[in-house]
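User: I'm putting together notes for a lab meeting next week and I want to include a structural view of one of the chains we've been expressing. I don't have a solved structure, so I'd like a prediction I can at least talk through. The sequence is below, exactly as it appears in our construct file.
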Amino acid sequence: MRRTVLLDLLAAVERGEINANDACERLASLPYEDIGHARIDHHRSIRTGLPEVIYAAGKSAEQTTEIFERMAAAGSDVLATRVTPETAEAVLREIPSAVYHSAAQAITLKQSADAPRGEIAVLCAGTSDIRVAEEAAVTAELFGVNVARLFDVGVAGLHRLLAVREKLAASDAVIVCAGMEGALPSVVGGLVGVPVIAVPTSVGYGASFAGTTALNEPSPAGSTSPSSACPSNSVRPNMFGTPSSDEKPSMMRTFDTEPGASLGSSVES
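Assistant: Thanks for the context. Below is the predicted structure for the 269-residue chain, given as structure tokens.
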């Protein structure tokens, strides 16, 4: 349940449009709703400003669908990640207004009418990183942030990154998804004065070790994300685009800025 939905409900009670008993029934699922296989945290968006996200991996299509339906009924914007085509088909059969983003392996349902605020850039080093980058982009868009997608701008051809430098400069924050040696976040961190969240991916061969190299090892750019010389960099675990995007709305709620205004290198979520 979003804060605005709760306020509208209380205002309706105050105006006499809804009686107290009906309001109590609507609030009965707060702070969570126990459906047996899950305890849905409807209260989370009121506490943190962002609703719970459904991690569909490991859940059956039926479980994911039921959770999605209950969250939708509570008035939340709903996001499910790591969704298989079979699960997406089951969810959309029950909620046709939901949208399946195949590249991100995610399903979204936008119910709030809030205007987007701020803009972030979502970068990926290579086409193989797009699934992670799209998950980050879709998440940010659902939660009220404009997104500029800048894909296949890895360090093997720095001219590609420099060609989009103006778009980077216009962003309030940047998410950088990269595998292999994980050099791109450090390079981006040296070009912008806004927070940079690095998302090492499991893409690579040779000594990439399923993303471990991108996460920990020295890179040609000086260092990878955890030990980056760029003070604006932070790092997220491998292959998770969603937590990265969750950080950005939290950052931008802290500042009343116009798109392109620097948030400062010390901001961390």
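A couple of points you could mention at the meeting. The chain is about 35% helix and 15% strand. The first helix runs from residue 3 to 15.

User: Perfect, that's what I needed.
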